[in-house]
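User: I've been going back and forth on whether these two constructs are worth ordering. Before I decide, could you fold them both?

Assistant: Sure. I'll take them in the order you sent them. The first construct and its C-alpha cells:
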Amino acid sequence: MKKKSSFSGQIGFVLAAAGSAVGVGNLWRFPYLVAKDGGGLFLIIYIVLVLTFGFTLLTTDIAIGRKTGQSAIAAYETMRPGWKKLGILTFCVPMLIMTYYAVIGGWILKYFTVYLTGDFAAAAKDDYFTDFITDPSSVWFGLIFMLLTGFIVYNGVEGGIERCSKFVMPILLVLVVGIAIFSLTLRSGDESGAVRTGLDGLKVYLMPDMSGLTLSRFLQITLDAMSQLFFSLSVSMGIMITYGSYVQKEVDLNKSVAQIEIVDTGVAILAGMMIIPAIFVFSGIDGMSAGPSLMFVALPKTFYTMGKAGYVIGLVFFLLTAFAALTSCISVLEAITANCMEVFHTERKKTTGVLTIIYLIATAVIALGYSVFYVEVKLPNGSTGQLLDIMDYISNSFLMPLISVFSTILVGWIVGPKWIAEEMEHPNGKFSRKHLYNIMIKYVAPFIMVILFLQSTGLLDRLLAVVA
C-alpha cells in the first residue's frame, strides 16, 4: 500500500529518525548509566552493541516499514499472515509511552521556564523537584507539551515532522557540542586546596573502571547497555517501522542507518561529556551517583554552583533537552497516528485531533499520579513505582524485549534475512553489513533478547537462584 505522505529525501528522513532516537534517554539516562557502570567500560560495551544489536534492530524496523509501506500492525501481517498480533503488541508500546512522555516533557519545560525567568536558585533546592511534581498545578506543563506535539503531527510528515526536525536537530547538535566543550574548561577548588577540572571529569568518564568487576557485574552492565539501546534508537516500538514506511525507494537505507547510528550515539557520548565533567568538578564522585534524579536535582545544583555562567548553561541545557524530548514525543504520537489511520481508514487531521484529546486526558492522569492519583505499586523487577513508572515498566521493560524476541525469530527463521536484505540492497545493490546482519538476526539477537526479557522481568534472578 502506497502512502500519500513521505519524507522529502534522505536528509529529511535521517533528521526525523535521529530526532526520534535522540531523546531524554540520551541526555539523562545515558550519562547516569555511564557513571554507574564503570565509565569507559560501559562506553565500550555500548558502542559494540550499537554496531551489532542496534544496527540489526534498526535495520529490521526501517526495512520492514519501507518494504511493506505500512505501519506496525499491518506490516507484520503483510510479512507473514497470522503475525498481526505481533503488530498489535508493537502498537501497544508507543500507545503506553505516549501516556507519560509529555509529562516528562512538561517537567523539562518547567525547568526551562524557571531558568528563563532567572529564578534558577530555586531549582537548586533539594526538594524543589519533589514539591513541583506533587503539586497538582504541574499538570499544565505536561498539557502544553502535549498540545505542541499534537499540533506538529497534525501538520503531517513533510510539513510538520520533517520541518520541525530540520529546524530543531541542527540547533540541538550545536548546543550539545558547545556545552560539552565548555564543561571541559570548568575547574573548582575546595578548602584543602585540591582542584578538580573538567578534564579530570573527562578521564573519569572515558577511563574504564575495572575495580570489583565480576562476571555478574559485567552481565548487568551489558544488560543496562542493551536496555539503553531501546530507549536510544527507538527500536521495537513500531516508530522506525512507521518512519521507514515514509522513505522513498531511491533513498539508500545503508547510509541512512549508519547516519542515524552515528548521530544518536554521538549525541549520547557528547551528553556524557556535558554532564559528567560538570558534576565531577562541582560535586565530585559523590555527585555522579545521583542516578535518575541527575537531571532534575543534581544538575540544577551544579549549575547554581557555577554562578552566572551556570545560569546561561542551565538555560541552554534545558532548551536543548526540551528540543530532544519534543522530537521523540512527536515520533511516538506519529507511530500511533499512522497505525490508527490504517486500521480505521481515517484522515490525518481528524485522527490526530482525536488522539490529542485522548492523550491530553492521559497526560493529566499520569501527571497527577504524584498527587491526586498517588499510588505505590511493587513491580516485578523489585522496584516500587507510581503510575508513570508502571507505564514505563510495561512498555520498556516488558513489551520491548518481548517484541524483539518475536521479531528476530520472524525475520531470522520464518521469512528469512533475505527478505530484509532485498530491501536494503535497493536501489544500488549494496548491503555492506549483510553477513553481520544474517548472523545477528538468526543466532545472536534472539538468544540475547530472551536473556534481556528474563532479566527485565525479574525472572532471570529467580532462575539463577534456583540453579544455584
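The second construct, handled the same way:
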Amino acid sequence: MSSIIIDRIAVDDGTLECSVRPSPDLERFFTDESFRTSYDTSIADVPEGVLAIPVLAQVCPVAWANGADVYVDEVDATFARALEDVKASLCEMHDFLEGGTLYARRTIEPEPEPSDESGLLFTGGVDSTCSYVRHREESPALVSIRGWTISPDPADDEKWDALRTRVADFADDHGCETEFVDSNMLSFLDHPMLLAHYKRYVDGGWYSSVGHGLGLLGLCAPAAYARGMEDLYVAATHWEGIDLEWGSRPDIDEHVRWAGTRCHHDAYELTRQERLDVIADYVRSEDPTLQLQTCNDQMAGNCGECEKCYRTAVGLRLSGLEPAEHGYPFSDADYPRLRRSLERGDWVLGQDERYMWADIRDRARRTEPATPAERTFFEWLEAADLDELISASAPPLSHRLLRAGARNAPTTVYNVAYPAWITAKAGLRRVRSDR
C-alpha cells in the first residue's frame, strides 16, 4: 500500500525539522533531506498538531497524486478538515489526482491567544502590493518565503538577502512587521521528478499547478499560531473568468485554515490591470515613490528586459504611471524590442501570460496611446494571435522526451541524467534570451 509517514517532529526555538518516510514506490519523489523550516518567531510553544501542518501541506498533494495514505502522530483538527476540502477541489481540477486518507493517532483543537493580527504573503510584486493597499488599515505582517522561486541553495543567498532587505524596508516605511520563512519544501521533495511525471498533465510546474496554494499557506501555520494571526491573505494571480489548472485559487486557498487562523484568496475579483489601477490610485494619493519588484531574472531591482518586466511596465503606463519612477527602466524604444521578443518566442510563456496580455489588450482598446510608439505597439497587439505567440514559446521536443524517459527510468539513472539536462536547459535559455 502506498504511504507517507511523518514520524519525527523536532523544534528548536524558531526552527522546525521532521523526518518523512515514503513507501518504496514513492521514494523517487523524495530526496534524502529531512523537511526543515525556520521562522523569525519562536514556535517552541506551538502544539505538535500545528507543527505538523507545514510538512503535511507539502506531502499530501504528492500522496493524492498516487492514491497514497499519510500517517502522522498528531494533527490540528481544523486543518485535517481543511485538507479534505482542499483535496476535493484539487481532485476536481486535476483528473490525474487519485486522493488518499490522512490518518492521525490524535487530533487536537487548541485555542491560541488571539491578537487581532493579520498576515499577507508578500514579495513586492503587483499582486501582493495590491493586496497590501487593500488591507493597509490592518497593518498586516508581511510574510516572505524562501524555498520556491528562491531556493535554499547557497547560490541563492544573494537573492534572498535582496528580498529580505526590500521587504524590511517596505515594512519600515509602511508601519508593518515582517515574518521571514526559510524552507527546503521543494528540495526535500524531488521536484524535477514530480515535474517529469506530471508536467504532461499541467500547464506549469508541479508546485505552480498543484501545490503552492496549500503549500505556502500551510508553511506559515506555526508562526501564524504563535503570533495569533486571525487572517492570512494570499494575493490572487488570476481573476474571475480564468479557468486554469492553478495551485492557488479561491476554491483551494479559501478552504485552508487551522486553529485560530483562516486564509483568504485576495483580489480575485480584479484583473491584473485593475490591480495596477488600485496601486496607481494609492501612488497618486499616498505613496508617490512606491517601487514594485516583479522581475523573473533578479531580485535586486528589475532587469527591465524579461517578459514580466516588460508586461508590468506596459501595464503601469496604461494605469497612468511612468514605469521608470516605479522600478522599471522603460521607454518608447522598448516597444519594438518587446514586439520582436514576443514574435520570435524568446520567453517560455503559458496560458496565464496569454490571459494577462489579453487583459492589457482590452485596456489598450479603451485608452488613448500617449505616444506614436505606443500606438504602433497596441495596433500590433490588437491584431496579434495570442495563441500563436504562446505556441511559439513552447519548450523543445527534446525537453518533453527527456521528461517522458525520466518517468520510467531507474532512480539511479535519473539522478545522473537529470542534472546534466538542467545544465543544458539553462544554457539554452540564456541563448534564447540573448537573441
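Notes on the second construct follow. Residues 291 and 326 are 4 Å apart (CA to CA). The longest helix spans residues 411-434.
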